[in-house]
Amino acid sequence: MKKIIHRTAAVTATLCIAVFFSSSVLVELFGSQESIAMVKNLIVMRGLFILVPAIAATGGTGFALGENRKGRLVEGKKKRMPFIGANGLLVLLPAAIILDQWAAAGSFDMKFYVVQGFELVAGATNLTLMGKNMRDGLRMSGRLRGKKPK
Ligand code: HEM
Q1: 139 Cα to the center of ligand 1, angstroms
Q2: pTM higher than 0.90 for the full model?
Q3: Which of 35, 58, 135, 140 could form a disulfide with 31 if both were Cys (CB 3.0 to 4.6 A apart)?
């Protein structure tokens, strides 16, 4: 059961970050200011209510599953998780909220794009770390062949 929750939450959280990232890039490159504001609002008012519990559930179930396991793969996952959480809470969450407010006010100036830049870098970092955790999880559960789990 724990494993099913872990897998579902992990995939949900990773997909959320990927969708927020790509929809932000696409709408800012090709969309109107109104559509940018709409996407930014959807991320905060809908998306975060899915992403935040999904990340919390992934971390919680992950540490429970990894409690008695030893080895390089599980240690790597344990080390990455605090970075994923801190990046989410300290960069992605505040950036999403402030960008939504600025976009709603039509304030697309330099500071909007600076914060947007930070958000994209933090999002790409989390996607990379989450992708590595996914790869190592799949190796541990034997679904992905690679270096033998210890
Ligand atoms: C965002 C972070 C994480 C992602 C994206 C992630 C992803 C995954 C995925 C996709 C699996 C394979 C599940 C399956 O085959 O059914 C898995 C398994 C696993 N994960 Fe994670 N995980 C994350 C965080 C963690 C953390 C922090 C730990 C703590 C050490 C952890 C421990 C485990 C363990 C032990 C398994 C193997 C379960 C088994 O086969 O018995 N995960 N993870």
Answers
A1: 9
A2: yes
A3: 35
Going by the DSSP 8-state scheme, the letter that residue 148 receives in this structure is: P
The domain that contains 72 carries what CATH number? 1.20.120
Per-residue confidence (pLDDT) for residue 145, from 0 to 100: 86
Q: Name the residue with tokens 């396991």.
A: 69
How many structural domains compose the chain? 1
Whether 150 is in a domain gets the answer no
Report the alpha-carbon distance of residue 135 to residue 143 in Å, rounded.
9
- C-alpha angle 52-57-60 in degrees, rounded to nearest 5: 125
Host domain of residue 114: 2-138
Residue 143 lies inside a defined structural domain of this protein: no
pLDDT for 60? 97
pLDDT in tens, 33-86: 999 999 999 999 999 999 999 999 999 999 999 999 999 999 999 999 999 999
Which of 3, 74, 79, 133 best tests ligand 1's pocket when mutated (most atoms within 8 Å of CB)?
A: 133
